[in-house]
TrEMBL record:
InterPro entries: Inosine/uridine_hydrolase_dom, IUNH, Ribo_hydro-like. It comes from Devosia algicola. Keywords: Glycosidase, Hydrolase. The keyword Lipid metabolism does not apply. Residues 6-309 form the Inosine/uridine-preferring nucleoside hydrolase domain. It comes from the Bacteria. PANTHER family: INOSINE-URIDINE PREFERRING NUCLEOSIDE HYDROLASE (PTHR12304), URIDINE NUCLEOSIDASE (PTHR12304:SF4). Gene3D superfamilies: Ribonucleoside hydrolase-like. This is Nucleoside hydrolase. SUPFAM superfamilies: Nucleoside hydrolase. GO terms for molecular function: hydrolase activity.
Length: 319
């Protein structure tokens, strides 16, 4: 019997696809829903990709379309990073249709999140690996959900390391910093799995090929769509890729593989450091400031990377 009920908030996205397959295949996960958001591609494309993967991989969870832009009206989204995830958002892999034959859930993602949480009080972990826009909209729609969520596990932020979209900011946070600040300062449990540790989790092309060989058609398709992403990372990794989003999925079932630091977190929403995630660790003292009175959240500062990778490979390959 599955021990963890999960909503997966995502912008597929190559590493999102790996995390989705992990969540669907892990025996302790009950995947209640998939909500889409803009980011790695437009929300039209990320929703198509989520529906396509749901159909291809026979995933039972419904898909709800989410936000297509940031919550701040003046925040202008740049073009999707096609050089990272391909023109179709799934590494330009062959076989992804322009449209799919199944429809998303009729509810917007924010309403879907509210309804699922209220139907499962205290039981749902939200695993959010894209912009935090849907979650911020859900809080605005129904503030009571902050008392009903088990935890919010995000892939996002760069706390003690440089970002990947600027020296200060990680992509998911800078894409909607106001939403991210809302999530970090809400009185619910947030676990932030950022670049501090995801840059330690690398899957090589050879490892992906081994998974595909034993994991069947699902793992083979994941391997196929990952090749473009691996090529992109060739400037920093020797024939491999970071598995950012899967780290957040792994935390749900194996939190003992992560070392956390508690403290209030704020997100810079203006200036040259827009999108920067800044934690005031518990037990540190400063003059009065924006962290005062904010809830302490968990930021991951260390990871057992080899154990995390072993669990991902074991789950996806079915070993």
């Amino acid at each position: 019997m599955a021990q963890h009920k999960v909503i997966f908030d995502t912008d597929p996205g190559v590493d999102d696809a790996m995390a989705l397959l992990f969540l669907d295949l892990h025996p302790d996960i009950d995947l209640l829903g998939i909500t889409t958001v803009f980011g790695n591609a437009t929300v039209e494309t990320t929703t198509r990709n989520a529906l396509f993967l749901k159909q291809l991989w026979n995933i039972d969870a419904p898909v709800a379309r989410g936000a297509g832009r940031a919550i701040h009206p003046d925040r202008i989204e740049g073009p999707p990073p096609t050089f990272v995830h391909g023109d179709n958002g799934l590494g330009n892999v062959a076989g992804v249709p322009e449209t799919v034959s199944i429809e998303p859930d009729p509810r917007p993602a924010a309403q879907f999140i509210v309804d699922i949480i209220r139907a499962n009080p205290g039981e749902v972990s939200i695993v959010a690996v894209g912009r935090m826009t849907n979650l911020a909209l859900a809080i605005a729609l129904a503030p009571d959900i902050v008392d009903l969520v088990k935890q919010v596990v995000i892939m996002g932020g760069a706390f003690d390391v440089p970002g990947n979209l600027s020296p200060a900011a990680e992509a998911n946070i800078i894409g909607d910093p106001e939403a991210a600040d809302t999530i970090m300062t809400a009185p619910w449990k947030v676990v932030a799995i950022g670049l501090d540790v995801t840059h330690q989790t690398i899957m090589t092309r050879a490892e992906m090929a081994e998974i595909a060989e034993v994991g069947g058609p699902k793992a083979q398709f994941l391997s196929d769509l990952s090749q473009f992403y691996i090529d992109f990372y060739s400037h920093v990794i020797n024939d491999g890729m970071f598995v950012h989003d899967s780290c957040a999925a792994v935390y749900v079932v194996a939190p003992e593989l992560f070392t956390m630091r508690r403290g209030a977190v704020r997100v810079s929403c203006e200036g040259i450091a827009v999108g920067q995630t800044i934690q005031k660790p518990d037990g540190t003292f400063f003059p009065p400031g924006p962290w005062d009175g904010m809830p302490s959240q968990d930021v991951c500062v260390e990871i057992d990377a080899s154990a995390v990778m072993a669990l991902i490979k074991r789950t996806i390959s079915g070993r």
